[in-house]
Amino acid sequence: MQPESPTAPIRIAIIGHGNLGRGVERALTLAPDMELAGIFTRRDPRSVTPAVAGNRVLHLDALPEFEDEVDVAILCGGSKSDLRVQGPALAARFNTVDSFDTHADIPSYFAELDAPARAHGRTSLISTGWDPGLFSINRLLGEAILPDGETYTFWGRGLSQGHSDALRRVPGVSAAVQYTHPSASAIARVRSGERPELSTQEKHTRECFVVLAEGADADVVRKDIVTMPHYFEPFATTVHFITAEELSRDHAAMPHGGFVLRSGTTGGTNTQVMEFGLTLESNPEFTASVLVAYARATYRLNQQGVHGAVTPLDVAPALLSPRSAAQLRAELL
Fold first, then answer.
1. How far apart are CA 23 and CA 252, in angstroms?
2. To 5 degrees, how large is the angle CA 82–CA 83–CA 89?
3. What are phi and psi of 15, to 5 degrees?
């Protein structure tokens, strides 16, 4: 359980200062029970401009000196390389929170953090954000409450960074972004109580906005995109050619979102549908806000003697809130 009365501010270190790290900075300004201990970066600290004026920026090499001044380190690096190195290394010295999102590797990553965190009395919460994270919790709730049913996850409308990178590697493409769209007809079928068998291709479409390189042939580029194996060939894909000015003006934001639906039956005949959805103007800022809430929970778990690795599935919702248990009972229950 969380404390019944306020305690000293939870001291947060931000590890990494990309879009996610800047989002954590802004989210901390709305957390009444937290304060920033510092931003730690691999870059020259003098080259980093914090999102919030006055926030301290230090080199990552200085982090061990702050072991007694940091309650939770929020790891804002990427799953592919940063977190696999930083997570296990920091788990022995700090309580940590991250948004590791390579679903297939979550069990092995959990084990890599669990051993050092448990050995040193630390708590490492992994794979939070919205998927994995909030979507994971809603998938669990759906299965637990409606055991006779099917779960469906839809992503979008959202800017896909991986697919956008694949677009930019196509010969003749100067710049590009790609959006994933959920199929409105597929969602409607699930919401109606039907339990359709849907492939990933049936659940989503892809939309590309491309700036051509000088002299590139639009027809050739379009064909190369829509026939790209794994990324675009299996999907209904639309390609729009636009100017660099239009790309900068209309596609600089990073929206995303999606839905988790559980369609099931109770009593043998009654159709029940559960749904959780997100519509996000800024994917990194929303993910950062989730990280900050789970940093609060991680600190509280550690204070309660819960050591080792944990996931959002292990965390009681009350631990996320800055309100006391008495306030939650009176105002939200």
1. 16
2. 100
3. -105, 105
Could you report the average pLDDT of every consecutive run of 10 residues in the chain (333 residues)?
Answer: 67 96 98 98 96 96 96 92 94 97 94 98 97 97 98 94 88 96 95 92 94 97 94 93 97 94 96 97 95 98 98 98 96 96
Question: If you write DSSP's letter for every residue of 51-105 in order, what string do you get?
Answer: SSTT--EEEGGGGGGGTTT-SEEEE-S-TTTHHHHHHHHHHTTS-EE-----GGG
Instruction: Enter the tokens of residue 54.
Output: 């006055």
Encode 235-250: b = buried (16+ Cβ within 10 Å), e = exposed.
Answer: bebebebbeeeebeee
* Side-chain half-sphere CA neighbours of 236 within 13 A: 8
Distance CA 253, CA 209 (A): 14
pLDDT tens readout for residues 134-188 = 999 999 999 999 999 999 999 999 998 878 988 999 999 999 999 999 999 999 9
